[in-house]
Design goal:
This protein folds into two domains: about 210 residues, 3-Layer(aba) Sandwich (Rossmann fold), CATH 3.40.50.2000; about 170 residues, Glycogen Phosphorylase B (Rossmann fold, 3-Layer(aba) Sandwich). Strands 3-2-1-4-5-8-9 form a seven-stranded parallel beta sheet, sandwiched between helices. Strands 12-11-10-13-14-15 form a six-stranded parallel beta sheet, with helices on both faces. By secondary structure, the protein is of the alpha/beta class. The chain has 15 helices and 15 strands.
Amino acid sequence: MKLLIYSHFFAPSVGGVETIVLELAKGLAESYSANGSPEFDITLITQTPPEDFRDAQLPFPVIRQPSSAELRRLIRQADIIHIAGAAIPPIVWGIVSRKPVVVEHHGFQTICPTGQLILEPEVVPCPGHFMAGHHRYCLRCRGHSSRRVSFRLWLLTFLRRFLSQLVAVNITPTDWLAQQLQLPRSQTVLHGLAASEVLVRISGGQGVRVVGFLGRLVTSKGVRILLDAARILKKEHRQFELLIAGDGPERASLESYAAELSIGEQVRFLGRLSQSQLDETLARIDILVAPSLGGEVFGMVVVEGMLRGLGVVASDLGSFVEVLGDCGKTFKTGSARDLANCLAQLLDNPAASHTLGLAARQRALDFFSLRRMIEGHARIYRSLANEKAH
């Protein structure tokens, strides 16, 4: 089966979409049928330039920044088209070529002009103005963009939604996202990560407990809320260390804010880490915090913490709540006081935190394995191929 995967963003770019697409493509390329032959002939298309990434090391060809003619040719040659995100050109050419098109939604581009479902510039969760028909709010919600850009994004949302209603299957990584998008022929395939026994946090150890954050330092990730919670914990005379791993445009202002709150001794900004440095850092962490204010369709960092057996505390966004189940703690989104209360419970009771972490790891192994994700996609492709054959 010739499977064409289109992902606007791909390695060496770093992000959740890039990680999922890479692991999915590799897993499918290494899948074999009953007679021992490869089941999928994978080709991946991306608009991301290669820089120093070695495409030749991958078990499938990567076509970067193809012309429109080349994109159309590759789509015509494929049996199934998989599109990571509601990218308009490949959806259009896939439909025109009468190919089964699968769109996997990694954001809110079919129900929100900014794709984040966050009100700007307030940076709070959007109640769903686009789907409710309150379009004046969508046109005002433009952050740092111009009125013209805002209007263009608003129009494109209608087009993406219309096209997504025509495709063969819409894949979402959570049932919660499927409920938000309200698209026909939706199927949920949970994201998955590879698990490694050596990464498991065996025990909380002795001494000062370590709280960690991992992610891009942008306003929507809620790091300022985490710093406010750290100040509350310090005032309550709790002993802890806060490690913030990641970089981004907000780093300088967050470092200044931590100094203003007089929590500089408790907080360390580590910047962007290599994989080995990240592993070493996460091996020190007892509690992982995901304080996002919105824009989350799944929560890769949440599952990362769960697989490592960490106590996870996350904002009560719908995707986080679904992923964590009852194996972590959630707090009211944007509330530093509520976050501080959750952290205090785990800081004060290391045994409970450890027990929660073990339960979280088992849940991650049961539901968010890489093999389960790959097989979930493969079943959809097989079904579409059978329908086409008949």
